[in-house]
Amino acid sequence: MCPLGSHNVDDLAELPNDVRIKRLRNLAKSHDSNNNDIIELDELKEWILQSFRMLDREEAMEKLQEEDENGDKKVTFAEILGKRHGYGEEDLPLLENYERGDEDVDVLELINDDKKRFLAADLDKDGALSQEEYVAYFQPYDFPHMFQVEMERSMHDIDKDADGFISMEEFIGENVDDETRISEMTNFEELDKDKDGKLTPDELRPWALPDNEDVAKEEAEHLLNMCDLDRDGKLSIEEIVNKEEEFIGSSATDYGRTLHFVRDEL
Q: Which domain holds residue 252?
């Protein structure tokens, strides 16, 4: 995640100070869900989660525009197939006839993974992904209806002996240096809740589908620690304004970019 406001930090410097501060006040107030002029830890966490979702959607929309060849604001699998892999649907039977080990067979596996993800995201089953459906296709970890297909893909990629479990060696992978091996061993041991030396799909899930909740909680606690001047465990609007630079430097609240779209009259 790029630093908060890294898209617009230079532009922010050009805003008059009073305009910038007024917008920051309004931005903070927009996340004050109980209207008490205080941003509590859970409100700050939700602010950060909202910023993650906003960034995910923005990135997805940029990708949708690239793949939407006919400009109808939807994406078919044929458009994805051509744009990402350079094939038409009529080419797929030919790819299926290649022998395993062929480079085109590896491409076919990627195409099949994309197809499964596409079908899971296409909730109305009309053969095209709307903008909302495309966000789930592009960023599946934030959408529960995408979890099963993503876990199946992860298990297929890592479970080399196809026994339904992930051993430590499978998790670590091949040709890794000593530092990486030690790090991955630690990760494996943390995931292996029942300490039986192998990972079930449920145990692998936090690694395969990382949860933004923990990241948002850590960042919220960091901002609270840095900005809570009176140490009362919450942030007043004034404390946020006084610590503007901390919000600019944050990796989460998207202050720098969002400030350009905040209404001055709030």
A: 18-56+211-265
Indicate whether 194 and 175 sit together in one domain. yes
Residues 6+ apart with CB under 8 A from 151: 201, 204, 205, 208, 209
Same domain, 216 and 157: no
Residue 237 lies in a domain: yes
CA angle 231, 235, 239 (to 5 degrees): 90
Sign of CA dihedral 212, 217, 223, 226: negative
Spatial distance between the Cα atoms of 219 and 183, rounded to a whole number of angstroms: 23
188 burial (CB, 10 Å; 0-12 / 13-18 / 19+) is: buried
Q: What is the pLDDT of residues 16-45, one digit of tens each?
A: 888 878 888 888 888 999 999 999 999 999
| pLDDT at residue 137, rounded to an integer | 97
Residue 151, number of CB atoms within 10 A of its CB: 16
pTM (2 d.p.): 0.78
**What is the CATH number for 225?**
1.10.238.10
Last residue of a domain, one of 174, 193, 210: 210
DSSP classification of residue 166? E
User: pLDDT by residue (tens digit) across 176-190?
Assistant: 999 999 999 999 999
Phi/psi at 252 (nearest 5 deg)? -130, -45
